[in-house]
Design goal:
Helix content: 40-55%
Strand content: 5-15%
Radius of gyration: 25 Å
Number of helices: 24
Shape: globular
Largest sheet: 6 strands, mixed
Length: about 550
Amino acid sequence: MKKACLLALMLVTLTDCARSAPEPILLPIVKQSLHLTWFANFNGKAAVSLKSYGEQSAYHVLAERTGITVDFQHPPLGAERERFNLLLVSGNYPDVIEADWFGYPGGSSKALKDGVVIPLNDLIRRYAPNLQALLDKHPEVYRQISTDDGTIYAFPMLRIDPQVRSVWGPQVRQDWLDKLGLRQPSTMADWYRVLKAFRTRDPNGNGIADEIPFSALTIPGEKTVPGLPPPLWVFLGGFGLAPEFYRCGTKVCYSPAQPAYRDFLATMRQWYREGLLDPDYLAQTERQFDAKMTNGLVGAYAGYNGSGLARFTAMNRARFPGFKLVATPYPQGPAGKRYVTWPEAGEEYMGVGAAITPNNHHVVETVKFLDYGYSAAGGLTLSFGREGVSYTMVNGEPRYTDIVMKNPKLSVAEAIFAHARPQQGPLVQDVRYLRQFYSMPEQLEAVRTWSDASTELLLPPLEVASLDARKFNAIMSDMKIYVAEMTTRFITGREPLEHFDAYRRKLDQAGLPFVVAAMQRALDRYDSKAIQPTREQP
């Protein structure tokens, strides 16, 4: 048996030993100090006080425990994509590349094919007991972090707890609701009544009909539903829809082609006509939106918990006594069910992971080091830093110290990043970090409110097959433009809704059946991935 194991180790092939339980990680991992080179984008909050993640308390602690020191290579802020592309062209890879592999040209499978990264499945089975245990417990994680053929290519940043994915959603002025004697909206009919009251009953009390019942900050991005800024996505769920491609049972559907999309458009059209939607909803900069929020004009919108709810609360409390902005539930859809329509809320893995390159001469040691981040002790360190400095244990729970929570020179987020990487890197995001990062009660309530809705309509991260990709991208490029134009025309009243059937036929003519079929094949491949056991089954 020993000879077989030695042979398996030399050949790095799958044997009975490889299917046995992974080796336990013994600290230190190396007896002689080892330095690993590691390319990673640098968070702007960390850059306020540090020159490298290597200066964080967390990586000092990891070096002490494991014997492995990380020498980070950070691209300049704002030049991340350019430097990443230059790195790929150079072929002079560091030991580890941490990147958004969904954004790699051609996808993660192409990164493997190009020889930029190495496959990890067998290595994880042998030397990564903590990550392998997660994969055994959470099959969905394995499906999300692997290519179509089941190859794992990076140690992922994981968001397993739904609360850490619930960072965005609908928000409303609770003080306006209270003043008008209204309850938080639950159904689409409730939303109409609330927005109508905001428009007609002067909730800001200035005697002028200047209220904007529902406003929208335009966030550009590839996942944007054509013709709809993200804040309007929350109302798609009220019709059983989700942005662009979504799950309808076991099938893939395209939202702008569904009969329910016509009903959605009819509702948005009515709201637009009656002044319930901000007339600037299609193209509004952050500065324009902020001006409306800080002048007490906006009654509801959808946005982030931190840069939205917390920031506007801090900005407006002194300006408007009694100001209270709160999260409100996603609207009820068919059969009274609430659906999350923020695509990232359904992604336990968003594509960012630490991959090992073929230039690495210490692969086994690197695997063990990366896996330590998924252990209880390693995850605690990466999320909170050094015990006694940046956190202490209180009743069994890690609590950031005053050097983080009350730092005189740094914000809470900046102080956290001076010591730890709870939002990035190869680890499982710790909800205990989030509960302290969100310092306002309204933020904690927002997490509970938004995470209560179902993510069943949201697709996992999918990659269209390489054979389909060229035709798929060509069709979608043209179709997105047409959908955006027609969605805008329907909502603003420039196109009668009686033309919806003709619009739908043009989608078919443009190639809709092919792109839906391509996405269906991608979903089928995703769903069919089988977890390979860590040990032989009896």
